[in-house]
# Entry
Amino acid sequence: MRSATLIVAITAWAGLAVQLHASVEATGSLFSALWMMLLYFTVLTNIVVALLFAALAGGWRASPRLVGGVTLAIMLVGAIYHSLLSGLLDLSGGAALADVLLHTLTPIFVLLWWIVFAPKGGLTWRDPLVWALFPLAYLGYGLARGAQGGRYPYPFMNVSALGWTQTLLNAAAIAIGFVVAGYMLCAIDRRLSRSRSR
# Structure
C-alpha cells in the first residue's frame, strides 16, 4: 500500500514540478509562473493530492471524508478536462507532459488507490455537500481573479465572453454533476464495504 501511495504522490509532485518549469520558461519569472499556476483548479487540486498522499505515505491517517473529497475533486479535474478542455491548446514539451500527469495520470491513480486501498464504509450521505464547498470556494476565487486581472481560468468561467447568466448556469451544471458524482462515490463506498465484510 505504501508503494502505491508514494506513486500517487510522486506523480502529482512531478506534474506540478514539470508545469512550474514550463510556466517559468513561458513567463520568465518564478513569481509570475506561480501566480499563473495558482489560478487553476487543476493545480490547486493536484497540490492537495500531492500533500495528502505524501502525508499518507509517511504514516498519517486521514479521515474517509477527506480522502473521499480529494478523490472526487481530482476526478472532477480529469472529467472536466477530457470532456470540455482537451485539445483547446496546442501543447508541447514540458507543458504537454505536465498536461498528461496532472489531468490524466494523477486522477486515474487516485481513483484506483481509493478503490483498492482506502478504508470503506466511513462515508456519509452528507459528505457530497461538504465536498462541494471546495469547488464552490474555487468558483468565487477564480471569478475574482478573472475580474481583477482580466484572465479567467477556464472558458466556461469567462464572464467577459459569456456573461454572468451563462457563466452561472455552467457553474450550476458542474456543481450538480459534482454532487451527483459524490453520491455515487458514497454508494460505491457502501457497496465495497459490504463486499469486504462478507
